[in-house]
Amino acid sequence: MSFANLARPGREQPLRMLLVNAGDAESLTWSGLAQPLRLAQRMLGAAFVLDVRTPAAVAVERTEDWHVALLVADEQQRPPPPALLQAVLDRCRGAACWGGVGAAVLWLAGAGHAAGIRIALPWALYADTEEITERTIMTPHLFEIDGRYLTCCGGAASIDFALTLIEHLFGSAIGAAVKEALCIDRVRGADERQRVALQARFGALQPKLSEAVTLMEANIEEPLSTDDIANLVGLSRRQLERLFKQYLGSLPSRYYLELRLQRARQLLLETNHSIVQVGLMCGFSSGSHFSTAFGALFGNTPREERQRKLAAA
Q1: Domains of the chain as residue ranges with CATH
Q2: pLDDT digits (tens, 9 = 90+) for 18-73
Q3: Of 144, 187, 223, 289, which residue is the least packed, with the fewest Cβ within 10 Å?
Q4: Which residue from 237, 238, 247, 235 is spatially nearest to 205, judged by alpha carbons?
Q5: Is the pTM of this model over 0.90?
Q6: Phi, psi angles (nearest 5°) of residue 102
Q7: Tell me, what's the pLDDT at 195?
Q8: Distances (CA, A) of 112 to 108, 115, 158, 159
Q9: Element (H, E) at 63
């Protein structure tokens, strides 16, 4: 079952979610995930069962079944003993949808449970990925929802991840109520990137790639051409395209366009600039081009995105 199939109307049985805390109960990763979910549980009553357990308790439990199971740990946390970790992972993967948050993403990938799956690994752990299979697709995003697999880089992104899960599973009304209780205006989406992830992952091994992305991020309002970027980093256009395709799965022009559109979306939600101003600030001289490109990436127009902000307010 994919995560998309869990949110079905008229659910007769309560949705059961398991959180396994393998880290510090006071950490931002844990509190950012658990607090929104606990608020949702209070609002939903018997419709949502949230089980919070330790790794040791989960390893010996044999009677419970969960719709969603997440193993959670800070990025500094050392993994449990191998036998205990394997037992916990075996129990978690028995859920309809499962995954990890923070350092637990590295643990489940290292145990061979992420082959061919997009995972959001904390950027600080990129240096510890020797044991991860080459088929694992590490992305620089805040979190990933890939079929039945759920991963989040942890830290402050845990809040965005939890709120996204809540809105998807229980609807926008519950999602809005939890955001209001937490005084949160905007939830960052899965397509937003960890700010240091690319530099951490490619800075030493692929400095030209990192330099090219930095140039793109610094030139949103007046975009550079692919040839300009290639010349500035000392590569041919073909070499630059090969790097982007190999490590980011995209052509430079497409990656650059998505950066500009993500910035536009942020401005639409967080500022009062007009839609025309936002388009110009993100390098779009044509309003129709801006609207078409925005709709192709996000599924709605800039005007609809701005209306969503006004409706939430």
Answers
A1: 3-182 (3.40.50.880), 203-313 (1.10.10.60)
A2: 999 998 888 889 999 999 999 999 999 999 999 999 999 988 876 668 999 999 99
A3: 289
A4: 247
A5: no
A6: 70, -135
A7: 59
A8: 7, 6, 23, 27
A9: none
